[in-house]
Design brief:
alpha+beta; 338 residues; 8 helices; nine-stranded mixed β-sheet; binds manganese (II) ion; 2 domains; Ubiquitin-like (UB roll); single chain; 25% helix; Creatine Kinase, Chain A, domain 2; binds adenosine-5'-diphosphate
Length: 338
């Protein structure tokens, strides 16, 4: 028996965009299975999840990884929030995804999410001048050099941490707006990608904190001629990934077009500031899909079109979306008849 610091992480009840919270529980090791981690509780009246008179909420561990920040045998523990009586809390969107994932398990859905975000140094994006603006966009995307790229040390540290934690982390790139970056997770199942995105977001905030930098998922952090931040969600089912899959992908796009407003409703707050029809987006009021089209709502990658099977990319989700809701909506529309 030995002591382990377990960082219990959960999603709060803040509206319109929930945020991450965490606190540390010292538990007895070894921890090898999720069942080894006890349920816990917190004060829901401080997280917009309860009122003061009945403030207790429960934390139920659902996913844990080795903690690459504290190292050793310490762990990071993602939790679902339950009411004091053990029922699902209204803010717990993962519980619904669990049901949807089970219902369409036979479709073998895979997701890959591209998480864009922006570093801030106080009130301005990292690397921006104290007064005025940096040079216009054009050279920053996938750039190199201290005049173009800001925050790489944090990005590298975050990537190493995610890999050490065992996440299905598959890449990073510097984005079009200076100070903006992206990482990708996937392709894995709906619960896996969503749990891992929330865990990777927490690690990003935590690691940036040590550099006195904050990271925001706000979809349009700087108004004007600057790219917004999205969470492109790449999606396939087994039949899309097999020969003949292109017709399944096209049918999925047609269905998604009929449910555009229902999807936008769960694709993140303030997304109208980002989906303007400019800066590689399609207007929030339109739905279009097309091969290789970065101005469409849904892009079918060139490689998918060329071989005739693969996946689609939903470009609409905002960086601040809840992946539990986005992946559930995609499965309900495409695999079912939501
Ligand atoms: P982009 O060209 O849009 O910037 P990225 O390389 O950033 O593309 O991201 C592509 C994403 O697609 C990755 O997250 C990857 O995991 C995911 N992906 C690859 N193949 C599939 C598939 N068959 N189904 C779902 N997602 C996939
Ligand atoms: Mn990308
Ligand atoms: Mn991108
Ligand atoms: Mn993309």
């Amino acid at each position: 028996m030995y002591s382990i610091m377990a960082e219990y992480i959960w999603i709060d009840g803040q509206k319109p965009t929930a945020k991450l919270r965490s606190k540390t529980k010292v538990v007895r090791g070894p921890i090898s299975r999720i069942e080894d981690l006890p349920d816990w509780g917190f004060d829901g009246s401080s997280t917009q999840q309860a009122d003061g008179s009945k403030s207790d909420c429960q934390l139920k561990p659902v996913f844990f990884v080795k903690d690459p920040i504290r190292g050793g045998n310490h762990v990071l523990v993602l939790c679902e929030v339950l009411n004091a009586d053990g029922t699902v809390h209204v803010s717990n969107t993962r519980a619904h995804l669990r049901e949807v994932a089970k219902m369409y398990e036979h479709e073998e859905a895979w997701f890959g999410i591209e998480q864009e975000y922006t570093f801030f140094d106080g009130a301005k994006p990292l690397g921006w001048p104290d007064h005025g603006f940096p040079g216009p966009q054009g050279n920053y995307y996938c750039g190199v050099g201290a005049d173009e790229v800001f925050g790489r040390a944090i990005v590298e540290e975050h990537m190493e941490a995610c890999l050490e934690a065992g996440l299905d982390f598959c890449g990073i790139n510097a984005e079009v707006m200076p100070g903006q970056w992206e990482f990708q997770i996937g392709p894995v199942g709906p619960l896996e990608v969503s749990d891992q995105i929330w865990m990777a977001r927490w690690m990003l905030y935590r690691i940036a904190e040590d550099h006195d930098v904050s990271a925001t998922l706000y979809p349009k952090p700087v108004k004007g001629d600057w790219n917004g931040a999205g969470a492109h969600t790449n999606f396939s089912t087994k039949s899309m990934r097999e020969p003949g899959g292109m017709s399944v992908i096209t049918a999925a796009c047609e269905k998604l077009g009929r449910r555009h407003a229902d999807h936008i409703a769960v694709y993140g707050a303030h997304n109208e500031e980002r989906l303007t029809g400019q800066h590689e987006t399609c207007s929030i009021n339109e739905f279009r899909y097309g091969v290789s089209d970065r101005g469409a709502s849904i892009r079918i990658p060139m490689a998918t079109s060329n071989v005739g099977y693969g996946y689609l990319e939903d470009r609409r989700p905002a960086a601040n979306c809840d992946p539990y809701q986005v992946t559930a909506a995609l499965m309900k529309t495409v695999c079912g008849n939501w």
